[in-house]
Amino acid sequence: MSSPSLSSFKRLWFKWKSLKLPWRKRWLAGADLAGNTFWEFKDTISSNRLRRIVQYSPKTHYADIQISPQWHQWLRYTRPEPPSIPEQQYDLQRQSQLKHLARLADERWASKPSFLDSPKATSQPGPATLPRDPGGYVGQTEPDQNEGVRNAVGSLGEVSELEDPVKEGRKPAKARDNPWHLKGRNPGEGWQPESWTPGASKR
After folding, report:
1. Which of 1, 22, 144, 192 is paired with 200 by a 20 to 30 Å CA distance?
2. Residues in Cβ contact with 20 at an 8 Å cutoff, skipping those fewer than 6 apart
């Protein structure tokens, strides 16, 4: 229950105070490594439940006081038994080991390249323009200018001669054959509404 830094007289005094004698109103439950003591006393309202408090060390300033999670659990009735000194020492070793492992993990993480860094010019390959395995695919080349027209019909003069309807013996299209020139074919095209004259009303 007592801290290892305490003297032998202090340890005996803590051991004596921890005895639950019938005439005592409160007794010592334990102490932490910082010198804070934890006490239990009878509640006047609820006799079946003991009250639990902590008395801080006078050598420590109130702003620097820290209570371990084990003692917090005991004060809030989460754990029935108070933590022992070996348990508190083991918890300190565990915390120091966790801090050491976290520092090593941060160093390993910092040594790896980050995705937020600007990429280098030669680190990334260029975009693939053609498939690696064409599988019978042959890239098409752009034809020469008027290549298809010259091979199929001929030169520009030959095309103009073929398009002349007089030289081919055909008759030119008349204006009446053009659907846009057809007039008077729609029966309702020239219809206009007549004026309306009301008749005499019958009584």
Report:
1. 192
2. 27
Amino acid symbol at 23: W
Residue 121 carries which side chain, given as an amino acid letter? A
Q: In what order do the strands lie in the sheet with 26-31?
A: 26-31, 37-42, 50-55
Contact 56, 26 (CB under 8 A): no
Query: pLDDT band at residue 2, thresholds of 50, 70 and 90?
Result: very low
Three-class SS of the chain: CCCCCCCHHHHHHHHHHCCCCCCCCEEEEEECCCCCEEEEEECCCCCCCEEEEEECCCCCCHHHCCCCHHHHHHHCCCCCCCCCHHHHHHHHHHHHHHHHHHHHHHHHHHHCCCCCCCCCCCCCCCCCCCCCCCCCCCCCCCCCCCHHHHHHCCCHHHHHHHCCCCCCCCCCCCHHHCHHHCCCCCCCCCCCCCCCCCCCCCC
Q: Write out pLDDT tens, residues 44-102.
A: 777 778 889 998 988 888 888 889 999 999 999 999 899 988 899 999 999 999 999 99
Q: Full-prediction pTM beyond 0.85?
A: no
